[in-house]
Amino acid sequence: MGKVVGGMTLSLDGFVSDPHGDVSRLYPDLGELRNTEMLQEEIRTTGAVVMGRNSYYMGDPDSYLDDYEFQVPIFVLTHHVPEKKPKQTKTLTVTFVTEGVARAVAEAKAAAGDKNVILIGASTNQQCINAGLCDELHIGIMPVLLGDGLRLFEHIDAARLALEKIRVFESGARTDIWFRVVR
Amino acid sequence: MGKVVGGMTLSLDGFVSDPHGDVSRLYPDLGELRNTEMLQEEIRTTGAVVMGRNSYYMGDPDSYLDDYEFQVPIFVLTHHVPEKKPKQTKTLTVTFVTEGVARAVAEAKAAAGDKNVILIGASTNQQCINAGLCDELHIGIMPVLLGDGLRLFEHIDAARLALEKIRVFESGARTDIWFRVVR
What is the topology classification, in CATH, of domain B4-78+115-181? Predict the structure, then answer.
């Protein structure tokens, strides 16, 4: 059984995007990032993705077919299933889940098999952490300060959560830390 | 000439103390921390300390003589010089500075000689960063979430600041990252 791995790339002051939703300072060189052993390993071990509606519509949904590093089933948490059906391939399928985060994670785990499920988006992460659905957190720290924006660690019942550092990995300006969620 | 090194130990969600000022979850084992090569190196390279009034009075000032890892001149930023003179030794002197952070740092640099000046306390760090007085940041990250409390990265003019990662060091649960302040 795979794990459910949450987490995101944060600025040193804790933001996953600036006040305008811009993430470019957190990912200054996507091409370089995609070539890191870290991301290649994550691609090999990921069997499904759960993401929120906002994350899904940040780009053109049809572009996932060519551009997205994770060519696996994607489960999109939403209140309304869009009328326009996105383009899909045999490996990258898109499923809209309206029954909440527990259902989305369950479906993603079933699709992922022995591989991991990763969580994309601040709200999806927060909901999964609070529901006890998250096994690990993978936090990337970039040496920038955004000053304001969207935080990953908000709306989380911090007192209920204990973390254990598993691993640290450096690639370029990034520092990536993996934590096990122990309760 | 030594460097001015700011930074503090943060929870993963960015707090230097909880809402009650408690820092115990960030320093679960002070004895173990003091034995790390990292802190031993910091002790060897530190020639003076600048700290805010709040940090200085967190403990009993007289206890610095025995307990404090940095047995060097301490410069305390304050608006009012206390009447009671703290106990001092030949190496650990205490100077109250009422003329602001630039003056405190200048005096500390003079006292430190070739060694570094370190900054203690969130407000002292913020003032020094904003005044362009900080050469490096040393950030310790602990695998805990405090949920609320005092933040290091607040009241900082983030857009004016660029950081460059210098070094990562692991000791126990901590991950320490050093950054050069490049503007």
Answer: Dihydrofolate Reductase, subunit A (3.40.430)
Residue boundaries of the structural domains of chain A: 4-181
Nearest CA-CA distance, residue A14 and chain B, Å: 7
Asked if B11 and B26 count as a contact pair (C-beta separation under 8 A), the reply is yes
Mean predicted confidence (pLDDT) in A20-32: 92
pLDDT tens digit string along B128-148? 999 999 999 999 999 999 999
Q: How many CB pairs under 8 A join A and B?
A: 73
Cα angle, residue B129 at apex, residues B127 and B130 outer, rounded to 5°:
65
What percent of chain B has a predicted confidence (pLDDT) above 90? Answer: 84
Q: Looking at residues A135-157, what average pLDDT do you find? A: 97
d(CA B138, CA B98): 26
**Which residues on B lie below 8 Å from A145 (Cβ)?**
153, 156, 158, 161, 163
Residue B15: predicted pLDDT: 97
Q: What is the ipTM of this complex?
A: 0.93
CATH class name, domain A4-181:
alpha beta
Residue to test with chain B: of A13, A26, A38, most B Cβ within 10 A: A13
Residue ranges of chain A whose CB lies within 8 Å of a chain B CB: 12-14, 139, 141, 143-148, 151, 153, 156-159, 161-165, 168, 170, 173, 175, 177, 179
> Which of B74, B106, B104, B109 shows the shortest CA–CA distance to B88?
B74
What is the rounded average pLDDT of the residues B98-116? 98
